[in-house]
Specification:
This protein is α+β, with helices and mostly antiparallel strands and 249 residues long. 58% of the residues lie in helices and 11% in strands. The two termini are 16 Å apart.
């Protein structure tokens, strides 16, 4: 089963993400659906199994294009589900924005331990600020988990890595060459090791720093559990339980 949260996870900077796996680990929540918050309705969709499309709108329910008859209690339950899901979305965006800020700060702190030149550091800060601004806009504008599929997240991360890591590696490599020409082979070796280990060394340290986001994620778990409870008893047009969200131990 693909792990999905029924709201808006986002990619974080430098290959660090607020991923569905983290939501599953923290809140024990998963879903096989993607979700899109439309102005007048909420759409859940997945490639299989049926129902493939579940759309709810002010207490009305359609699955795979067919209207579902609901009694008054079910309509009330569905209306509350819609309202509480929409209320949860901006809270998730806030956590995502905090995660982005944390990722940028963590990357800046990590690179401050390197002997980078002043020009390189200034250019690094400029590029990080540009990427962060782009991500903030994407987070604010996103209304669908389709915007944060794993391949999309990987593409964003690779773009950032391709932009930032060569800048650092070139600076450290040039310094290593200069040190070697001065006869300081120990410094040259240390700088070369830093340059060659950038990609493999930075990511685990950044991921460790991102653990500071866990309390904010955990604070959303009761709302997610509440959504799972509200969906109970709701079925599609062919009688299948909706099971939009699973919450387990």
């Amino acid at each position: 089963m693909r792990l999905r949260l029924l709201v808006l996870p986002c990619a974080l900077l430098a290959a660090t993400s607020l991923s569905a796996q983290e939501w599953a680990a923290t809140c024990h929540a998963s879903s096989s659906y993607d979700v899109t918050l439309k102005p007048a309705s909420i759409l859940f969709d997945r490639p299989s199994p049926a129902p493939f499309h579940v759309e709810m709108q002010q207490g009305a329910l359609r699955t795979d294009g067919n209207a579902v008859h609901l009694n008054a209690e079910q309509q009330d339950r569905l209306t509350v589900f819609e309202r509480e899901l929409r209320a949860l979305a901006p809270r998730v965006r806030t956590v995502a924005q905090h995660g982005l800020d944390l990722a940028v700060q963590a990357l800046q702190d990590e690179t401050r331990t390197m002997s980078l030149g002043a020009d390189t550091r200034a250019e690094l800060d400029r590029r990080l600020a540009a990427h962060a601004a782009t991500f903030r806009q994407r987070i604010a504008a996103s209304n669908s988990t389709h915007d944060w599929q794993a391949d999309v997240v990987d593409q964003y991360a690779n773009q950032i890595a391709a932009d930032v890591l060569p800048l650092l590696a070139n600076d450290l490599g040039q310094q290593a060459l200069d040190a070697a020409m001065r006869g300081d082979l120990q410094t040259a070796s240390r700088l070369r090791d830093q340059a060659t280990g950038l990609a493999s060394g930075l990511r685990p340290r950044l991921e460790q720093r991102m653990q500071a986001l866990q309390p904010q994620i955990a604070a959303l778990c009761p709302a997610i559990t509440r959504l799972a409870d509200l969906q109970q008893g709701l079925h599609g047009s062919k009688g299948h339980p909706l099971n939009l969200l699973y919450v387990g131990q």
